[in-house]
Amino acid sequence: MSADLIGGPGGTDAPGTTVPAEQAAAFVAERLAGVPLEGRSLCVVVPDSTRSCPLPLLLGAVHQAVHGRVSHLTVLVALGTHPAMPEEALAAHLGYRPGELERTYPGTTVVNHEWWIPEALVSLGDIPAAEVAEVTEGRFEEPVTVRINRHVVDSDVVLVLGPVFPHEVVGFSGGNKYFFPGVAGREIIDLSHWLGALISNVEIIGTPGVTPVRALIDRAAARIPAERLCLAVVVASGTKDLHALAFGTPEEAWAAAAEVSAQTHVRYLDRPVRRVLSLVSPRYDELWTASKGMYKVEPVVADGGQVVLYAPHVHEVSRTHGTLIEKIGYHCRDYFTGQWDRFADMPRSVLAHSTHVRGAGRYDAEHGERCRITVTLATGLDEQRTRGLNLDYLDPAAVDAEEWARDPETLVVPNAGEVLFRLRS
After folding, report:
1. What does the record give under GO molecular function (predicted)?
2. Domain spans of the chain, in order of start
3. Alpha-carbon distance 49 to 35, whole Å?
């Protein structure tokens, strides 16, 4: 079977067209009307605020379609390992007034994915080493424990509701990625992220089809006992405008939405540029997420070039992983693989983040680390802290985006972090 799709390829509209709110809501209502939900519990897994998505519109349509039919509705925010969203932020994100959830979404519970609390997670067993070796194309041959948020396991039906964008770890986000790493335990988060890092950001980001990382998380998701459904959406970056909606299983809906995302979220250049100025979106309030301004542009930077992350609003490396990141700094992949004994005890997802930010490079004991490009922070982090991370520093006050944009060798990217830039060749 294939997913039901409106907007984008396979629908009545050309890629990039906006699907009106009324049409989107009707699509949700019609598709959920065909799902036998009476008397069953439903868990809706949604992204946190680091993704552009008209969640109030979509969640409102879902609630209207299922209220009075399901025995209980839980909205679970897929944090991965991001910080928990407080009530005020949740209310703004989901479309209700603080303290008035019941008024807007009667019979609904909203919870963060409490990845830091062991009791919030349930084990679904191990993926055996032979299976891991198969899906990772031989990069790993070790078992991995599959743990997931208890609300997913305790529900009869689970609906993934969220956007699809090019992604540095898995190729394109969305679908089963909202389970792993979205509401997962650390074991599979660490393995999947380090797998993506070994393949490298440039090689995997925006790659169509089932990448090794996607194969791993699909294999883990198959262990979820609940019925799995997905409403995958393609959103105009930095807006609430919908390009397309796809409904089906997480695998089907993701594949349809990823095809649209590949045509709407990727910009092609004819030749590399010497310098990129990424004007990082304010939705990213720590370097952990603001670094998407690096991931999405690395493929178009010439050897010896520079990426400048302009984000004066960023004053933290990571509220959950900052201590570890500041301990190891930012380095290329080969820096870690070339001296693995030094780093074997570090969380592999943290190492993956480090390599993604620093980009491609080489390391050997004789010559040390030689990175392909320079990464410069023009953020709220001071110079001492920035250089301590093994990154270059630039005072944000020295950046004039309009002046830089007049330089033919500089690419200035507004609202950086969701749109991928690649070379046409």
Report:
1. lactate racemase activity
2. 4-266, 270-423
3. 28
What string of DSSP letters covers 25-48?
Answer: HHHHHHHHHTS--TT-EEEEEEE-
Token duo for residue 173: 């986000």
Concatenating the DSSP letter of every residue in 80-106 gives TTSPPPPHHHHHHHHT--TT-HHHHST
SS3 content of the chain, % helix, strand, coil (to 5): 35, 25, 40
Q: What is the pLDDT of residue 16?
A: 57
Q: Which residues pair with 112 in a beta bridge?
A: 77
- Do the beta carbons of residue 169 and residue 352 sit within 8 Å? yes
Q: How many helices (H) and strands (E) does the chain have?
A: 18, 20
Supply the pLDDT for residue 203.
Answer: 96
Report the half-sphere exposure of 334 (CA within 13 A, side-chain side).
13
Q: Which residues pair with 410 in a beta bridge?
A: 275
Answer whether 0.90 is exceeded by the pTM: yes
| Cβ-contact 163, 235 below 8 angstroms | yes
Q: What is the pLDDT of residues 211-254, one digit of tens each?
A: 999 999 999 999 999 999 999 999 988 788 899 999 999 999 99
The C-alpha atoms of residue 164 and residue 257 are separated, in whole angstroms, by: 6
| CA gap 312, 419 in Å, rounded | 20
Q: How far is the C-alpha of 382 from the C-alpha of 399, rounded, in Å?
A: 15
- Which residues are paired to 310 by β-bridges? 279, 378
- CATH match of 4-266 with 3.40.50.11440: yes
**Is the CB of residue 183 less than 8 Å from the CB of residue 48?**
no
Range scoring the smallest mean pLDDT among 12-26, 198-212, 228-242, 411-425: 12-26
Cβ neighbours around 277 below 10 Å, total: 26
Contact 126, 144 (CB under 8 A): yes
pLDDT higher than threshold 90 for residue 1 = no
